[in-house]
Design brief:
single chain; alpha+beta; two-stranded antiparallel sheet; 2 strands; 44% helix
């Protein structure tokens, strides 16, 4: 049993895919004994993995939406980027002196 335990990885990354989101879990074995520099590296890896997964999902969704646009000639609202709010028209930014 000890030999099997030593062959296991020191950390696990678990991604739970759902219909509308993905949950990402990170577990590190013996986390109290891990050096701070290793913890920081694991945190950087976690952030990079999540960002890459988000980017891949966005690209895949855009490709599927563009294919649908090509096939149906109907654009989904998801393909149209929301306009950036004009701060000059927002009353909370208008103040007189």
């Amino acid at each position: 049993l000890q030999e099997a335990y030593t062959q296991l990885p020191n950390f696990w990354l678990i991604i739970q895919i759902k219909d509308d989101c993905a949950n990402v879990f990170f577990h590190r074995r013996n986390s109290t004994k891990v050096l701070t520099t290793v913890k920081a590296e694991h945190a950087r890896m976690f952030v990079a993995i999540v960002e890459n997964a988000r980017s891949a999902c966005r690209a895949t969704n855009q490709i599927l939406l563009l294919k649908e646009l090509h096939d149906t000639h109907i654009s989904r609202s998801l393909l149209i980027e929301n306009p950036v709010e004009d701060i000059w028209k927002n009353p909370s930014y208008n103040h007189s002196s």
